[in-house]
Amino acid sequence: MWSYIINPFITALALFYSFTGNIVLSIVVFTAITRMLLYPLTIQQQKSMKAQQELQPEIKKLQEKYKNDREALAQAQMKLMQEKGANPFGGCLLMFVQLPIFLGLYQAIIYSLAATPLQLLDMSGRLLVPGLAANIPLESVWLGMDLTLPPTQNPVYAMALPLLVMGTTWAQSKLTMANSQSRKKDTDDGKSKKKKGDDAPNQAEMMTKQMTTIMPLMFGFFSLSFSVGISIYFITSNLIGAFQYGVLARNIGKDEETEEEIEEGEPVKVLDEKKPTSKKKGKQSSKKTKKAVTS
Amino acid sequence: MTDRRISYRRQSTGFLLLLSFLLVGCVGQMGTSWPSLTLLEDGRTIVFAHEQTLKLVDVVEGETVTILEDGDPVINEDGEPQQWLINGGDYDGAEFFGAPIQIEEQSLLVPVADGRLMQIEIPSARVVSEPITVQARGNLTTDLAQSGNQILVGLQNELLAIDSENLERDWSIETDHAVWAEPIRVDNTLYFASLDHFMYAVDAETGQEQWRLDLEGAATATPAYDANLEQFYIGTFNSEVLAISRAGEIVNRFATDGWVWGEPLLIDEGDETKLYVADLSGFVYKLNPQDLSPVEEWPVAARPTDAAIRMTPTVFGEYVVVGSRDQRLYYIDREDGNVNENLTRTLDGEILTDILHFSADDIDGLEEDLLVVSTMSDREALVGFTANTGERIWTIRQR
């Protein structure tokens, strides 16, 4: 069963290697493609988090109403989420889909680099495209570092990799956090006035906050213990993830602005006042105005 | 509110713990290598090396050898004879993957996975000198080989020759990838293959390269030499068996179904010589050495199969015997190529190590021909079978 995940990954890595002739480039290309394929799920995750945040004022009202009846509260919350089409597990979906992919990729890299006889033996029969065996084993030395070994067994400069892993993991988590916080702020400012005790964060947000602290340390530790090839994957994945969250934040932000404009009925004026010098933005605003009018 | 915070904390910590367990679990599933077996000069004692265990086993008795001090058995705290067992944990976490060699009469030179070579006195199981480091980084998994007064060690990116007298570095030749198989010496030239897809011929005294040949695939085994035809046979990951002249040219090719890991075996059959080789797709091939034309191709199990055969086939009497990754020991009839189901045995672990065949004619005290099979399982580290009837005689655990 596990082979159905690992074998295509190993084949893809070997295929990229046959084009690039460089294992690090292959890992980077492979990671980029994997993250791009997961991008719809990333969008889904962000939207789900957003939907949950928008429900917060109503959830808080329910919490007040049913503060002595946990069962009734749970039922009312579930009903509310069903009515609004919000999935309480939507925020975690990406994590759980990513987990087998991440583990598969991790094993694929280990098998492909084949540091030991047993790992190389395990490679046999896993390549799904004929002719790729001519590239096996893949060259595992890059910039003087043996990618099959952990940083502690490589030249001293390899120790920079766990630091980079920690830094990029933190940056990615921070960006995810920043997205959700800014949206929460927008929700609080624009739709319901904040009351004392209304700052209870939602589940996804709390988890993200925890991750921002723990994940960099944990992945830094993993990078110290596992082969350098895995660190390359972590860093690439984090950088691409951070970029994706950045793009997503801009797009979702724009969508929200458009929605607000539609609600307020002054779309052109508001946008032009905010960004008067940007011709491109002006064009986008015109399009949005048209959309707003037609809708 | 506080309860909720604690709950979130528990959830995220739980997720991270799950991730950690899965990662560690994945690492745990990946071993390093399989057991190696070395036959000592007495012809009946083998050295078993796997993970952190090194032990000496007498194949006639089917028991671990007893440690001797001045010729007398050493008795442990329980009043029992002390068994010849070295725990790598007592030697800076030493792990043993490659096969040791016997140097001098009473001494073993043992490769340690972290790049050291340990010299151990055979009777007393004592480490007799400070281990020497031959490789700074990476796993040392190769078997050691002796050639004249040199010990040859395949390393991550070189083949190293050490003087067997003083264990000092003699020469080395650089390769682009690891050397996992020991070289073969013909006259004054050493021939070996590397994972870098090349076969090398080097001067045995100086290490000077004479030629290198692109095999178009990685090679993990020692080339087999045919003195009659003056050519070598080697299998590759390009799913081929190649015949190579001493001048370094590919003379013939034979396409196999899967990667070839083990060394081809030349067997005299009456007036003819045949070449036996197995592949990781679970086929055993019998070839004509002259042109590598196939005489027989025997799948050991129905397709698709997990019966990858890493080893060199063992050929004796009516049978070709191979062990496989599906934990089965297959007896193939040499006449018709059928797998003898009555003799086929299922063991507790994958069978990746070359099988040793002992002839009763050669060893005192051995009543029948014996097969010694090693598995990846701790419970059946070594199993002795009667060669012709497949009857299990003894079993030795790893610890």
Give a structural overview.
- The complex is a heterodimer of chains A (295) and B (399).
- By secondary structure, chain A is mainly alpha-helical.
- Helix content of chain A is 75%, strand content 1%.
- Chain A contains 12 helices and 2 strands; from the N terminus they run αααααααββααααα.
- Chain A has a two-stranded antiparallel ribbon with strand order 1-2.
- Chain A is elongated.
- The model of chain A is unreliable at 190-200 and 266-295 (pLDDT under 50).
- With 399 residues, chain B is mainly beta.
- Helix content of chain B is 7%, strand content 40%.
- Chain B has 1 helix and 36 strands.
- In chain B, strands 1, 2, 3, 4 and 7 form a 5-stranded antiparallel β-sheet that branches. In chain B, strands 8, 9, 10, 11 and 12 form a 5-stranded antiparallel β-sheet that branches.
- The model of chain B has no long low-confidence stretch (mean pLDDT 91).
- At the A-B interface, helix 6, helix 7 and helix 9 of A face helix 1 of B.
